[in-house]
């Protein structure tokens, strides 16, 4: 998990936030791109990058959700990167 938290794509975007939104969108890159207001190719690249870092097949919902549950408590995808969620 630490590797993913420390890893950033080339533009400095938070990969964990992308993964949370991807999961909220049921693994749909198009919907994820719409929510993040980025191009679908960017989402696909980030998902590929997450797979490379973690070694997990996050395209499978159960794997993705188990991994996300292991992330730090209190993280919410609507919070800016580095901010702790309250409540």
UniProtKB/TrEMBL annotation:
Query: Domain PucR C-terminal helix-turn-helix spans what residues?
Result: 15-65
One Pfam family, please name it.
Answer: HTH_30
Q: What is this protein called?
A: PucR family transcriptional regulator
Originating organism: Pseudonocardia acidicola
């Amino acid at each position: 998990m630490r590797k993913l938290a420390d890893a950033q794509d080339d533009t400095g975007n938070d990969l964990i936030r992308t993964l949370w939104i991807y999961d909220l969108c049921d693994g749909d890159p198009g919907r994820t791109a719409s929510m993040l207001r980025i191009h679908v190719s960017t989402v696909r690249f980030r998902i590929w990058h997450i797979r490379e870092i973690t070694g997990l097949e996050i395209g499978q919902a159960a794997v993705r959700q188990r991994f996300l549950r292991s992330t730090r408590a209190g993280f919410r995808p609507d919070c800016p990167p580095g901010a702790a969620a309250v409540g």
